[in-house]
Write a structure and sequence with these properties.
elongated; about 425 residues; eight-stranded mixed β-sheet; binds cytidine-5'-triphosphate; Rossmann fold; 2 domains
Amino acid sequence: MRIVLGVGGGIAAYKVASLLRLFTEAGHDVTVIPTEAATRFVGVATWEALSGHPVSNSVFDDVHQVNHVRLGHEADLIVVAPATADLLARAATGQANDLLTNTLLMASGPVLFAPAMHTEMWQHAATRANVETLRGRGVAVLEPASGRLTGSDSGPGRLPEPEAIFDAAIALTQGSSDYQLPLAGKTVTISAGGTREPLDPVRFLGNRSSGKQGVALAVAARNAGATVRLLAAHMEVPAPAGVEVVAVETALQLREAALAAAADSDVVIMAAAVADFRPAEISGTKIKKRDDAADPVISLVRNPDILHELVELRDAAANQLRRSQLIVGFAAETGDGEGDVLAYAEAKLRRKGCDLLVVNHVGTDKVFGQDTNAVVILSRSGSEPQEASGTKTEVSAAVINRIGYELNHVSPRA
Ligand code: CTP
């Protein structure tokens, strides 16, 4: 596919180098057209080296090739990232004052804008009107991600992750009206890994969770356009790029992080293996074996059920936005003489009160640390249980798709 990659003059221009790599590695032929301002952030040499093509932003270079007409006309797809407020305004009003805006006027294929700017600029009536104008003409304008911006401010206005822009661009060329990624503009908090409950400065009670499933969910949510916060208990795998990571160790620390993160999350997924109990006392010094004393007995106390507490807080929230939060639990279940896995899982779904429960059937396959998984997704809305199996990446994609479906199609609680 022939792609024109327009680069606007914003600090996020540096992230577009990764987007360019994603396109070229997928075999596409990419011509980069930066604006004059964009070249102040990333130099022409970078775009030339990464794209393998000469780069210009002037209509007066290589005039004999009539680039201002040819590039837009020949492109199968035009992607503009970061689309600044200025660039959106110039595109909306049909200006042709540099090579990129000329190219946009000549476009015969799909056009995708990935905006990035400060929240106030994105929310300004002028920008809103420009975005509406462009969308009204059939141009795809992604919602920016939410999170830390260039200064100390944060809010909607971050450039969506390169993988998310890539997925949206490919979906657009495949004629999908789904270019609005399922979780675009949503904030998703995911807990992952296993908590560790200290006994003394060197020992802890832990579990076998590797964090692979939670990390795969974070990647899938990020690629679906969400702003992702990963609450990482002990994990054997690294956290993925493009997500905010909050490191925790114990169930109590995870509880604190989860309650804080939930305040502005559209979705909370509790994929972490949380210790149900912790030692009643933590010794300040290493517990030693002593021949003249009795062997120690460890007493345990219950940890709070974080998932249940999140549901209670959500249901009691005064504001409608918080009340429409979607909460997803995970459960590892086995069947026994008194009931099968599904019966136990349905009882757990009711007990926990979450919207979706992703159930691992333990025993048929080992779950912890493995790369594959088989799950059943149960929904509080009463729809049929949905089965998903495959790699943890594939299972995560199914869970994230289901979450997108619930957010977009199932009416929020009153
Ligand atoms: N969970 C939680 N807080 C806890 C324990 C578990 O938030 N203290 C969450 C897990 O992250 C998971 C879900 O609850 O999403 C199910 O955990 P599980 O241990 O299976 O639930 P329990 O209620 O402890 O069930 P059981 O009685 O089978 O141990």
